[in-house]
Amino acid sequence: MNTDTGRDTADDPGAWARPAPGETPTAPPVTVRLALPTDAPAIAAVHQASRQATMPYLPPQRRTHDEVTRWIREIVLPQCHTFVATRGPELLGYAAVQGDLLDQLYLRPDVRRRGIGTLLLDAARRHRPGGLYLHVFQLNTDARAFYAHHGFRVVGADDGSANMENLPDLTLRWTPVPRPRFPRGNP
């Protein structure tokens, strides 16, 4: 018997794989992969839910789910290198990189602060190891803190006339720290 769990393990080799009574099964791991066209409806749902939950200062959404899905399928996916975070069949979030612009990074509201945004950001950084920039609303203090934590620095500010929401925003930039170069050969 395992004294930590009170469960028999010596006689039951599957005891480690099954949850104890009252425990929930272990969730599948979160994975990051390239987005597929069939992901467009789920990406659109994440986009809409995230904006509504995390940016209450935005004007009410005027686009339907079908319109946002069409935008994802016809504009975002063809023009951006788009990553999705999934757990089993669930799509949890996405990040879209166009050139060296991190154009989108959104998570389902119920999975925030669990490292999923970091996984997506890491995928974007691997895709653009020379650096990334992004735009964030000045009012979006949670996103600003997330990006600052991950090494992004403010490089510009705008009054909002350049975005369709007409809200002041910031341009942030991440530039990788150069690694020390050691001379070839033996020390």
From TrEMBL:
The keyword Lipoprotein does not apply. Residues 1-28 are annotated as: Disordered. Residues 30-173 form the N-acetyltransferase domain. Its EC number is 2.3.1.-. Residues 1-10 have a biased composition (Basic and acidic residues). GO terms for molecular function: acyltransferase activity. InterPro entries: Acyl_CoA_acyltransferase, Bact_Acetyltransf, GNAT_dom. PROSITE patterns: GNAT. The keyword Transmembrane does not apply. Gene3D superfamilies: 3.40.630.30. SUPFAM superfamilies: Acyl-CoA N-acyltransferases (Nat). It is an enzyme of class 2 (transferase). Keywords: Acyltransferase, Transferase. This is GNAT family N-acetyltransferase.
